[in-house]
Amino acid sequence: AAREVAAVLLRGDQLADGQTQAARRVLHVAEALGCLRKRRQRRIWGGRAGCAWYGLPRPLMEKTDQPMLLLMPDALFEDDAEIEREVLGGATDILVHRELVAHRIADGDWRRADALIVYYGVPIDGALIERLDSCRILVRAGVGYDHIDIGACGARGIPVCNIPTYGTASVAQHAFALILELTINAKLHSDAARAGEWSASKD
Prior knowledge:
Blueprint: H1 2-11, H2 21-40, E1 50-52, E2 68-72, H3 82-88, E3 92-96, H4 107-112, E4 115-118, H5 126-129, E5 137-140, H6 150-155, E6 160-162, H7 168-184, H8 186-194, H9 197-200
Parallel strand pairs: 2-3, 2-4, 4-5, 5-6
Antiparallel strand pairs: 1-6
Helix pairs in contact: 1-2, 2-3
């Protein structure tokens, strides 16, 4: 199932409603892998993810039999990247950490990583970016990237991507929920019914 979702995402098709957390994780992997593949083909990524280019991109990666190293410093899932490993197969080594500060991750891991998929736990500041000797792409697994120094990434030729459609359905759903609350006071009436006020009302 994960491979099927990945194929849909790599084609740029729209996910069905009710997309799961698993599907979103496949999306992050697909975006990172897609960016790297297109870089190797000397094309700039222009897919469903936003991909901001700051400064000149780094030289293309040399062809090698060594697997790509994907580092996830602040993963929010509990397993050992099972979905990511299924999608990427044996072509990629994945290092999963669940940290909030960068220094708890070995310096060698940062320096060897070909790609990063980050959430929001570890700030990606200029000092850390200076240690990304091998990194060719940085993907934010979500929308906001205010904790990433995109200027420093640009100076080192590392493109930064985010997932602008990550919460589109959830935002729309929340907006309509607030509209309904403001127009019919759904929570007020629900609380009143739970408190027994509804059955005690004379009318």
